[in-house]
Amino acid sequence: MRTHNTLKISFLIISAVLLYSCSNSRHLPAGDSLFKGSKVRIADHEAGKQERKQLQNDLAGVVRPKPNSKTLGIRLKLSLYNLAGDTKKKKGLRHWLRDKVGEPPVLTSSIRLNADKELMVNSLQNKGYFYASASVKVDTSRSRKTTAIFTVTTGPQYTINKTFFQKDSSQIAHDIDSDFVSTLLIPGAPYNLDLIKGERSRIDAELKERGYFYFKPDYILVVVDSSIGNHKVNMYVRLKKKEIPDEAYNVYNINNIYIYANYKLRGAESDTAKDNIVKVETYNIVDPKKQYKPDIFVRSMIFEKGDQYSLEDQNTSLSRLVNMGTFKFVKNRFQPVNDSLMDVYYYLTSYPKKSIQFQIGALTQNDNRVGTEGSISLRNRNTFKGAEALVFKINGGFEAQYSGAGSKPDIYNFGSEVDLSFPRFVVPFITINTASQYLPRTIISLKYRYESESDLLRINSYTASYGYDWKEGPHKEHQFNPFNFTYVRTDTLGNAADLNELYGNLIFNGIIIGPTYEFTYNSQVGPARKHSFYFDGLVDLSGNILGVAENANYETNPKKLLGSTYAQYAKLQPDFRYYFRFSKATMFATRIMAGLGIPYGNSEELPNIKQFWAGGNSDLRGFPSRLVGPGTFNDSSNTSKYIETLGDIKFEYNAEIRQNIYKFINAAVFFDAGNIWLYNNNPALPGGKFTSDFYKELAADVGLGLRFDFKILILRLDLGIPVREPWLPENERWVFNKINIEDPEWKRNNLVLNIGIGYPF
């Protein structure tokens, strides 16, 4: 009854919103109308088909103000504004709906049509359509709703005939001319004002690399001659001689370099006294308290005394100092000594050397397990006075199932970790220096983890690793660990059959030893783009050389290391994501993730801590956490229940449309598909082995989500429903016909609520 009433209330709310969305015009002031937006029609065909389409989109974006926003074709915010009605109160639901969530109508009277028309013409002229014209009329054929219709005649687009640089006798003019073959103003290219601005910036950047510290793009003038006929222009690039100050003609070299290693923001430069300066190579280090080893600055700096000034070297040096992780503020200053030399000052304000951080949070799985986790970490940012970061961390937590069928064991975990990182490559007998703006890091790590699953299992794992983390640029990152050593010991505490549980393939005792390499590409770094990509690829190897050398075989010739069995496998895990931004408020996101683990030699299957799982709040969101598969295997029909099921092979596809509906509130519609499989057959998991029919064994779900973006974190609620169950007979796996939202039993078994932090991908 309660569910039925809830559905009735929800239906009434939705009906009210839809009703108001159909009658928004009834609430408008007398004599005015609702502005629906604008349409642009291009009357002539001087521009090509694709160019006309692009021009229509660009010109429509010129019209201000924008019409009321839509969500799934409905002016939802305007409907809520009208639904709330007039209110003088500054609080309450109606005030919140009207003034916080709602959006007032955009009236036709607020549109400056003539001004928008002139902006369109100006925009076209900036693109080379020098004889463009536009007219506008309004269409109010629909009840009190107006569309502005602009008719544009572009005329022919002018293109570049020739480009000349008018040089003079100055050295700076000679330097510009020597590199003018790289001009952006290429003959045949359409005239475009943005292209001219780009050419001025290109010249400025080239001159900055040649030592012209005081030059600016504004000192370049581009004169356009459109009188040569045939809809072409000649361009004449020259210097604004009368506006260029004398110092802009000078090429500067680096003189003295001063580095203030512990600068106070309100401090003075009195530390330049000779007794406080340590001279290392060509650098003057000001560090009276001897907090840092001078060589860390030598490795970080790209500039040296006598070098010609370069903007790229300046930015790279600043970036390397920032990425060291030791300094909170980094700034620099250049001071001319004469017409050809500059002193350089770097001011570095340190973070506190030692810090402590506490974290505590709650977690939930979609199989009704909840828990908490917390950690405390101690950090020393300058352990050995070489900007080494030493981090000691302790963490712990638990998970418990509060309801639902098939109760799972409570899980308790505890861990500790020590990480020591160096801001450079530490390679025995070799010195590696880089000129990247990102300093590489060498990381030594020791970890311990303890996990207890009620009266079933007790797992202890010890890990030691040594490796490198470096970035090619803002989008590409590499992680290479040539040494990884993990020892796992699993103790069974009770009789699984008596406890109505199955261990499955959770138990692994032994050693994992081998290298890993991971590459990440992320184009989302930086300004928002219409198309964005993310790729992460992992290669994980264990026991390869050792197992081959010993001719290991888990059935006929098992081998041990330090008295324990060692794992032998090769694992590949690519993860590709694509993001398409329809608008500022709407995005399509998709992910394809595959995993291939090949156990061989000394191993029948991957160690459980290296295997894949399916189901969960960032995976298949319509299924229980870690209990999908492998293959067509399903545990729900058994009297005994698995804690979780794992596999050596995985495929997963996810897609969702994300829509902003109000400031920090976002909605999503999603679809997930995937499964896991075993590389070798396991009689305890029938149907779990990977075959060529794997695509017939995919589980799938659909759902709706809400995401609350609080900036410091994103709280995510996703409600998933299974629509394909691979353990059913092959012709019955799609279960759309079984969806029954009014059946309490169906809802209890199929509606899966996921609560998570951050986006799933």
Keywords:
11 helices, five-stranded mixed beta sheet, 761 residues, Ubiquitin-like (UB roll), 17-stranded antiparallel beta sheet, globular
What does this structure look like?
This protein is of the alpha+beta class and 761 residues long. Among the domains are: 2-153, no CATH class; 159-249, Ubiquitin-like (UB roll); 253-350, Roll (Ubiquitin-like (UB roll)). The protein is 16% helix and 38% strand. The chain has a 17-stranded antiparallel beta sheet that branches. A hairpin with a 3-residue loop joins β16 (441-453) and β17. α1 (2-22) crosses α3 (76-84) and α3 (76-84) packs antiparallel against α4. The longest helix is centred in the first third of the chain and has 21 residues, at 2-22. It starts with a helix and ends with a strand.
Beta strands, count: 32
Task: Return the structural class.
Answer: alpha+beta
Low-confidence spans: 1-19, 496-501
Strand content: 35-45%
Q: Helix share of residues?
A: 10-25%
Q: Overall 3D geometry?
A: globular
Helical segment count: 11
Topology:
Layout lengths: L1 H21 L11 E9 L6 H12 L15 H9 L8 H9 L11 H14 L6 E10 L2 E9 L5 E7 L5 H8 L14 H17 L10 E6 L6 E8 L13 E8 L16 E4 L2 E4 L8 H6 L10 H13 L3 E10 L4 E10 L3 E11 L4 E12 L8 E13 L9 E12 L18 E13 L3 E15 L4 E17 L8 E2 L7 E4 L2 E7 L8 E12 L1 H7 L9 E2 L2 E2 L3 E13 L4 E14 L41 E2 L6 E14 L2 E13 L21 E11 L4 E11 L19 H7 L1 E6 L4
